[in-house]
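Intended use. Records such as the Alanine dehydrogenase entry shown here are meant for training and evaluating sequence-to-structure methods. They are not intended to support clinical decisions.
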Amino acid sequence: MRIGVPKEIKNHEYRVGLTPASVRELTHHGHEVVVETDAAAAIGLPDEAYTQAGARIADSAQAVFAEAEMIVKVKEPQPAECRMLKPGQVLFTYLHLAPDPEQTRLLQESGAIAIAYETVTDRRGGLPLLAPMSEVAGRMAIQAGAHCLERAQGGRGVLLGGVPGVPAAKVVILGGGVVGTNAARMAMGLEAHVTVIDKNLDRLKELDMQFGPMLNTIYATVDAIEENVLAADLVVGAVLVPGDSAPRLVSREMVANMQRGAVAVDVAIDQGGCFETSKPTTHAEPTYLVDEVVHYCVANMPGGVARTSTLALNNATLPFTLALAGKGWKQALADDANLRNGLNVLDGRITCEGVAKAQGLAYTPAEQALGL
Ligand SMILES: NC(=O)C1=CN([C@@H]2O[C@H](COP(=O)(O)OP(=O)(O)OC[C@H]3O[C@@H](n4cnc5c(N)ncnc54)[C@H](O)[C@@H]3O)[C@@H](O)[C@H]2O)C=CC1
Ligand SMILES: CC(=O)C(=O)O
Ligand SMILES: [Mg+2]
């Protein structure tokens, strides 16, 4: 198969769909790879590393989209990229369609086969292609939150760990999945007072076993969320209902009653965010204030540490990329129910239930769309 890797064009997005090591694996298996020039030069992966791995370098995104049978990317295609997609072309990347009607429509119109990293599953019900970026974003959430808490950033001038004689900051994490666990681990490492709130009791039990008495775990009720958010210095939004829009757990009124200079890091912003006051921001302008609460809502946080993130993402995506390239998309999707859960759009039909529900569109089960 001929696989194309365009340079990412989202604001301050320096990740890339394939590393040279992944390219070598694909060319070793007899596939052709074409990479846009300077696709990953910013993270120390120059064109020569790709040519040594067996790729060809193309001088534009247009050239990559024109000749590839499958496009492997990182972020959701921007409108200009959607318009370059062709009927029958496979797109393998993050999509986050639930809160994005424009992209959904453009993908439907393109006739491409759109497979979203974030809805591919594993045998244990996890999300193996979201997990590495959630690990990164969860860890970054505490770095970003600590920075935003500095007074010069609009924060309340609080140090996460406090010092002897002065209490530690209160960090409240909504959602104890991959983002939440990694955020908790970093915040505990900095000696903050950390609370995780989740509606999944089994998950809370696992966290309790993992971290012991240093971590407070609380079952998610409106009451518990309100009480903890209002007392928090830093709130991390880390909930997810796969495929669907994020549940809005923190209302505008709750934000208005938060402490002045408190910080909200809404990692769940890529699925619409879990604060009513959240709107997507960029690495160039990551924060804004609502009622003197600092909001950090960067939708591509891992792009900030693009080298680490690219390597971590490729570790997870490579087996699926190899399967799609080796078997062809139809067979690969037919053989693997977990990969099939990644299929979001086929022949203009929406095959992810969460996306269809979030946008009030008709849902076609992937099996039906594939004629299985
Ligand atoms: N902004 C960014 O750059 C990035 C954003 N993300 C996003 O972060 C979010 C979280 O991802 P993961 O941790 O991987 O998901 P996950 O599935 O591992 O964890 C989500 C947790 O939320 C809990 N949850 C769901 N609904 C809830 C509710 N109503 N109340 C309380 N808890 C609830 C679930 O029980 C689960 O434990 C996702 O939206 C993901 O796309 C991930 C990586 C990067
Ligand atoms: C998952 C996601 O949104 C990201 O890695 O940018
Ligand atoms: Mg306020």
